[in-house]
Amino acid sequence: MIVKVFNNVKRFLFLMLLQVMVLNHVQWSGFVNPYIYILFIMMLPLETPKWALLLMGFATGLIIDMFGNTSGLHAASATLLAFARPGVLNLISPRDGYEPETSLTPQKLGIKWFLAYVIMLTAIHHFFYFYLEVFRLNEFFYTFFKALLNSVITIVIILIGIYLFGKQPKANERFTG
Q1: Where are the domains of the chain?
Q2: What is the CA 125 to chain-centroid distance, rounded?
Q3: Residue range 96-102: average pLDDT?
Q4: How far does Cα 114 stand from its chain's mean position?
């Protein structure tokens, strides 16, 4: 239990520092800014209570807002992401359901499952964020393209990060069942 908490705190600190110190300053033509801090919410254990999930989503977004001067946009978007996560997990659950203590990684649940999970949650977060940022419909298609492009880039960075920094199965586990 303590190891899980410690690993989640490490992940939280790493993603917050990476987002605030590096990725908030990466902007291609003011159009693309990847938001990988959402991976923290996505990777929380399955057993996380819904109230704690919402609280952590709000706190995570609020921290990004404080450093990015975005007036609650990230807090609202990350809270929506945390709210949507249980529904998405139910939507794409394996036929027999999730086993207790399952980590939400491609190594455990497969790349197709993980890709569907990350795509859905990233799209929910990004489309809500960018439409909330603009808050008008006269730039609907511009905002749609911006949210779509940012989602794709964020998903690619998340996948690269998961495979670079994720735990790899041991040699004897790699080829079994």
Answers
A1: 2-167
A2: 8
A3: 80
A4: 11
- Residue range 29-57, pLDDT digits in tens: 778 888 999 999 999 988 889 999 999 99
Residue whose token pair is 């991976």 = 39
Q: How far apart are CA 144 and CA 140, in angstroms?
A: 6
- Nearest 5°: the CA angle 167, 83, 57 is 60
**Exposed, middle or buried by CB within 10 Å (0-12, 13-18, 19+), for 85?**
buried
β strands within the chain, DSSP E = none
pTM > 0.85: yes or no: yes
Residue 177 has pLDDT above 60, yes or no: no
* Per-residue pLDDT tens digits for 17-31: 988 998 888 777 778
Third-level CATH fold of 2-167: Arp2/3 complex 21 kDa subunit ARPC3 (1.10.1760)
Place of tokens 């952590």: 56
Are residues 96 and 48 in contact, defined by beta-carbon separation less than 8 angstroms? no
Question: Do the Cβ atoms of 77 and 127 come closer than 8 Å?
Answer: no
Paired tokens of 68: 């990015």
The tokens describing 9, both together, are: 């705190």
Measured in whole angstroms, how far is the alpha carbon of residue 79 from the centre of its chain? 11
Contact assessment for residue 16 and residue 64, using Cβ atoms and an 8 Å cutoff: yes
